[in-house]
Write a structure and sequence with these properties.
Nucleotidyltransferase, domain 5; alpha/beta; binds adenosine-5'-diphosphate; 7-stranded mixed sheet
Length: about 475
């Protein structure tokens, strides 16, 4: 009889990992390998797809050994860095060129031309996405235009995002992409079933090279026995932010999750209605099961934990990130100091790419702690700006569930509850992305009837409730607004 562990493969941007979950939600083992980052030109970011595969496989093999063999693994769930594009040869199963990573800006001119030609409105209405090099479509076309091996591959060309690549390698030739990952390519209409003919033509991407779009849970294929020492079904697939939303148990409107890492990604479930943002938030697929789609609104903040890194590495104001909690508590307030953390422009809902950072209100009384505190206060304010945009798009938050490296900071968690005026919850295990993939695999293999039932795998949570008087809150909101308007 087969065992019931769920094996998660989490192919991230800086590292790839494999984790083993028990059906009660306990994470019993983890293996991790870093990924090489290639920066061949300013604004270009590449990965070696062969390395992603080799290191993911190594991690998976280590987890199978820990589990005691493939018989003890019920299913595999895969989650991945979204939008990154891999091109490979169907005959050899080998990459034709380096993968172009989501952060890569090389197609900025192509995107500007599409906007200039008046296509943005149509693209945004259909895909929920703004026209930006971030998404996969222009990266795919770039490969066809600039890489001879890709251009001449003809019918042998396979294009896909990272989960497609891993599934191909694991199964020995199955070419699929789940609906959440597909919704980030800019080639799928949010309410369409397959690839969109008009979008593929506009972006110049041959549909024959693209994978088949599938659900997020189900039995998609089985692994080639030689890889893991036995066959394991692949039963869950999702892009990382969608997986984290599911892993946080944010399944219905009113819920929201914020992943506070280098930057911050915030998603709110929107149910079955195709979201149309009037505030430059993104509409995206949250999950698809039995062909039935649920959607989310998404907003991203460019600078979150990276501001703390900047205080440490560039300013030398703190020795380590965790010190900020005590420093913020060492002063009664920000002493009139405000910080706009636009170190790489401002993201949603402002979208001011050219904005730069600012610190205001300095006097002889200003100390290091005031500046650190102002930096930390800017986190809640950035999230509050998004909260307002989500509410204006008809998606107000009842509470916010946080995860990511910066969520470990109690002061920031409490300040977010105070400024947002909703409860903020933090799971004890903040690895919500992998957990979401485990939930999907559990549903896909039939351990659970649906995602709600898979909630038994959720981690316990710590709650932060609003505890700031209206006068203080008003002062903070007014101070931040003045900084934005300045
Ligand atoms: P990513 O997945 O984007 O690489 P992580 O989720 O690992 O990021 O989070 C790392 C970020 O969190 C770093 O930018 C770091 O500065 C910040 N961070 C980590 N611990 C703390 C802390 N205790 N307080 C504030 N920020 C923190």
């Amino acid at each position: 009889m087969s065992g019931n562990y769920l094996l998660v493969l989490d192919a991230g941007t800086t590292s790839t990992r494999a984790m083993l979950y028990a059906p009660d939600g306990a994470r019993v083992a983890t293996a991790q390998r870093d990924l090489s980052q290639y920066y061949p030109q300013p604004g270009w970011v590449e990965h070696d797809a062969a390395q992603i595969w080799a290191r993911t496989l190594e991690c998976a093999q280590a987890m199978v050994a820990q589990a005691g063999g493939t018989d003890r693994i019920a299913a595999i769930g895969i989650t991945n860095q979204r939008e990154t594009v891999v091109a490979w040869d169907r005959r050899t199963g080998e990459p034709l060129t380096r993968a172009i990573v989501w952060q890569d800006r090389r197609t900025a001119d192509r995107c500007a031309a599409l906007r200039q030609a008046g296509h943005e409105q149509m693209i945004q209405r259909r895909t929920g996405l703004v026209v930006d090099p971030y998404f996969s479509a222009t990266k795919m076309r770039w490969m066809i235009d600039h890489v001879a091996d890709v251009a001449t591959a003809g019918d042998a060309l396979a294009l896909g995002t990272v989960e497609s690549w891993l599934v191909w390698k694991l199964t020995g030739g199955l070419h699929i992409s789940d609906a959440t990952n597909a919704s980030r390519t800019q080639l799928m209409a949010l309410d369409g079933t397959g690839w969109d003919d008009d979008l593929c033509a506009l972006f110049g991407v041959p549909q024959g090279a693209l994978p088949e779009i599938v659900d997020n849970a189900g039995t998609f294929g089985v692994t080639v026995p030689a890889l893991l020492g036995g066959s394991v079904p692949i039963c869950g697939l999702a892009g990382d932010q969608q997986a984290a939303t599911i892993g946080q148990g944010c399944l219905a409107p009113g819920e929201a999750k914020a992943t506070l890492g280098t930057g911050a990604f915030i998603l709110t479930p929107m149910g079955r209605a195709v979201p149309q943002s009037a505030h430059r938030l993104l509409g995206t697929v949250l999950w698809q099961m039995g062909g039935d789609r649920h959607y989310a609104l998404e907003g991203s903040i460019f600078v979150a934990g990276s501001l703390i890194q900047w205080l440490r590495d560039q300013m030398g104001m703190i020795a380590q990130a965790a010190d900020t909690d005590a420093i913020a508590r060492s002063v009664a307030d920000n002493g009139g100091v405000w910080m706009l953390p636009a170190l790489s422009g401002l993201g949603a809902p402002h979208w001011r790419a050219e904005a730069t950072g600012r610190i205001t209100g300095l006097t002889h009384a200003t100390g290091r702690a005031h500046i650190v505190r102002a930096a930390m206060e800017s986190m809640a304010h950035q999230v509050q700006d998004l909260a307002r945009a989500f509410a204006a798009d008809g998606a107000p938050w009842r509470r916010l569930r946080i995860d990511g490296g910066m969520s470990a900071n109690d002061w920031i968690a409490q300040d977010m509850a105070d400024i947002l005026d909703v409860p903020v919850e933090r799971p004890h295990d903040v690895e919500t992305t992998a957990r979401g993939a485990a939930l999907l695999a559990g549903v896909g293999v039939g351990l659970f009837p649906d995602l709600a039932a898979a909630g038994v795998m959720a981690s316990e949570r710590q709650m932060f409730t609003a505890d700031m008087n209206e006068k203080e809150r008003g002062k903070r909101l007014a101070g931040w607004q003045a900084l934005l308007d300045d």
